[in-house]
């Protein structure tokens, strides 16, 4: 599951018993050698889907981690690209890998931007927000975008009930709920708290017009449904 350069079991246990911020500070130096990093296949599929939707000027990676999203923003955006995260450790790794980008430490539930960006992306971050926290996240991204700006992110489709993936994600979420019930500080990371319908409702409530594109290159479930979709949430242009 992990490369030799990845974290040890002991290091993962320490991370799991920390807060989200502290846990990622500890994991940051080895994060890119774990399965938690956004796969290149997902980044590539997202880039291909966005290639015809530009041009974009300024780009923002929300909950940027070690900066994998810069592979998307760099080629698509003609000017400044920015990453925001609340983990100083993750930002340090991102800054080292992408020194030409701008890096901001902030809580994504209170983004410090106002109409600064044409494109915003996020990868693998929704599980770190409880359903009650998503509105603040989406409203902050909405404020950060210029009129007509685009907020986009891949979202996995729920696996079939009989699949191994279904029971694996269910088991993980149950274990995390038990952990958070008996241990403080909490570590918020769930796979099953951001269904597509709820995410679309929250985006609409924030003011976005939302569509979803099937990323069929990433495969399909046995029932033919796509394993992953790309959310395209557009902030209305001025006068609309």
Automatic annotation (TrEMBL):
Tell me the GO BP annotations in alphabetical order: methylation
The name this protein goes by in its record = Methyltransferase
Q: Which organism is it from?
A: Phytohabitans rumicis
Q: State if Methyltransferase is listed as a keyword.
A: yes
| Keywords assigned | Methyltransferase, Transferase
What InterPro entries does UniProt report for this protein, alphabetically?
Answer: Methyltransf_25, SAM-dependent_MTases_sf
**A GO term for molecular function:** methyltransferase activity
List the Pfam families. Answer: Methyltransf_25
Q: Where is the Methyltransferase domain?
A: 60-149
